[in-house]
């Protein structure tokens, strides 16, 4: 077997093995990863790349290494769910950087965050005056969480005792030109009803619809594929 075919075969094996193992480890957004999670992910990916291109390496041994790293990660995550002490060691815990408008200099040094970095993250969150901050904490994933002082928080309808209607999740009825029958059934709607709503905007070909989404207020949002236009169709009329 030529080297190229070997690389192709090993790449396929490592790709699907990595996909399977990552799925086993569970879903987690990149922004939620701790430094430990990040390093583990890089290590497993590095082993997968070794399987792919290092033709002189033993494929089985490398796959076993990936499996061992995955099992250890899953086992440690399970232990962390049930043991607070180990969770603090592995994941760490949030650190207060600002309290009642006062910067905690010792905590800044301990987390090795400069004032410039702190101010930058505050500005990204829309805070330009430290005096407006009640608490600012650096989370285990490196993200800054900010609680403004109550006097600086924006007014909400509940503060003014103003009743607001329920707003739930919209439902996709058409995606990529295909009607989602299950979604229609869940709302007790028919294809005839959907086609009738589309005809209000002279849309007769469903295949030209990129997305059709119905919100809880009865407004149907329709985005077209080719003509770069969108419509909002009231369905209660």
List keywords for this structure.
five-stranded antiparallel beta sheet; 3 domains; flat; 237 residues; CRO Repressor; 45% helix; four-stranded antiparallel beta sheet; alpha+beta
Task: Tell me what you see in this structure.
The chain is of the alpha+beta class. The protein has helices spanning 3-25, 35-53, 59-82, 84-91, 105-111, 115-124, 181-186, 191-199, and strands spanning 95-99, 102-103, 133-138, 144-148, 171-175, 178-179, 209-214, 219-224, 230-234. The strands form two sheets. It has a five-stranded antiparallel β-sheet with strand order 6-5-7-8-9. Strands 2-1-3-4 form a four-stranded antiparallel β-sheet. 45% of the residues lie in helices and 18% in strands. The model has no long low-confidence stretch (mean pLDDT 85). It contains eight helices and nine strands. Strand 5 and strand 6 form a beta hairpin. It is flat. The protein has three domains: 3-89, no CATH class; 95-152, CRO Repressor (2-Layer Sandwich), CATH 3.30.240.20; 171-234, CRO Repressor (2-Layer Sandwich).
